[in-house]
Fold this protein.
Amino acid sequence: MTAFELVEPSSLGEALGLLDPDDPAVRPIAGGTALMLMMKTGLYQPRRLVSLRALGRALTMIAATPEGGLDIGAMVRLAQIERSAVVRQAAPVVADTLLTHSNVRVRNVATVGGNLAHGDPHMDLPPVLIALGASVRVVGPSGERDIPVEELITGYMTTVLGNDELIAALRVPSQTGRRAAYAKITARTADDWPALGIAASIGAADVRIAIGAATEIPMRLTQTEALFAGRRIDEALLREAGKCAAAEAPVVGDLHGSAAYKRVLVEVHLRRALQKALDS
C-alpha cells in the first residue's frame, strides 16, 4: 500500500470539513472491511482517509421510532443489528438476513453505513431494505437529505452520494401489518456472496419485491408487484409471480452463475420468499 494520511475527527461537522468533493482519493472509512481489501490489492490508493470511529453516540445507537420503525446510526456494527432485540421486534427479517451475511468476523467490524455506502450490488441488505421501504439520512455541506435505499446504488460500487457526503443513519418505517422474508442463494457456503438475493414484503394493500446480486444494481420488480393488486394470494398466483419476475429481472451472469441459471433461481426462490413471508 502507498502512504496516506489518516485523520480521526471528533464531530460530524469536522468530518465533513475533511472530505473533498473534487478528490476521490479522499474518502471516509467506517469499519473498513471492504476498503482495506481494495487498498491491499491496489484497487484503491487513498491520499487521505477520514475515520468515523469517534463521531459520538448519535451514530452508534439503535432506536425504535414512535411510529414503530427503526432509526439505526450509520456506525452501528452489523453484529449489533443482528443481535438487537429492538430490530427483531420491529423488522426481524433484517436481523435474520445478517445471520448469513459474510462471516462473524466481518459482521463484528463492518458498519451499516459503510455497507450501504460501499455500493456493492452483491450485498444482502439492500434488497431487504428496499422491500421494507427503508431510506438513509445523508449529511453534507448543504444540509441533510433522505434517500430511499432503492435510489442509493446506481452502479457497481457507485452511489448517488457526493464525495463530501456521509450516511448518518438508516431509517426503516413501521412494518406493522406487513410480513417479510429474504431468500439468499449461494453457489458455495451459506455465508458466501449470493448468486441471488430476493426479498418480499407483503402488506394488506400491496406487495413489495426487491432483487439483488443477480442484477447490476439492487432494484424493485414493479411489474411483478402489480400482479398482486386486488388478488388473493394462492399457489397459482405465486407460480405466475415467479415466472413474471424471471422475465422482468435484468439478470446478468457472473462467477456465481450464468444469466439463464439465475433466471431459474429467480422464478423458484421468489415463490419461496413469498411463501416464507406468508408463513411468518
